[in-house]
Write a structure and sequence with these properties.
The protein has four helices and three strands; from the N terminus they run H-E-H-E-H-E-H. By secondary structure, it is α/β, with parallel strands linked by helices. About 15% of the residues are buried.
Length: about 110
């Protein structure tokens, strides 16, 4: 089941040149909001066309999806449902762009 889901995620992600594929996994690197902003800023400077984030289901991501990822990140040490992980991911991306624009945000 995890392998099938991984194949579907990779197919949906596509293989656009210049895109960055990021797998979200509990074993990934944890970033502060400022580090998220630095990562996205570096992507902008490097001409990255888009960021693609893989969020697996209850079984996690397949080995193939993890191997294909350019980077693995964690949203924190707690276990999140994939629906909640998507909300947390959206908030981190929003917060990163808020930081890059120099706007105040809740710390």
């Amino acid at each position: 089941m995890v392998d099938e889901e991984g194949a579907r995620l990779l197919a949906a992600a596509g293989s656009e040149p210049g895109a960055r594929l990021v797998a979200l996994t509990p074993d990934g690197e944890s970033l502060s909001s400022e580090a998220w902003a630095r990562m996205i800023s570096a992507w902008q400077l490097d001409g990255v066309s888009r960021g693609v984030f893989l969020v697996g289901g209850a079984g996690g991501l397949s080995p193939a999806a993890l191997a294909k990822a350019d980077r693995t990140l964690a949203l924190g040490p707690q276990t999140l449902s994939h629906e909640l992980a998507q909300v947390v991911l959206a908030e981190q991306i929003y917060r990163a762009f808020t930081i890059l624009r120099g706007e105040p945000y809740h710390k």
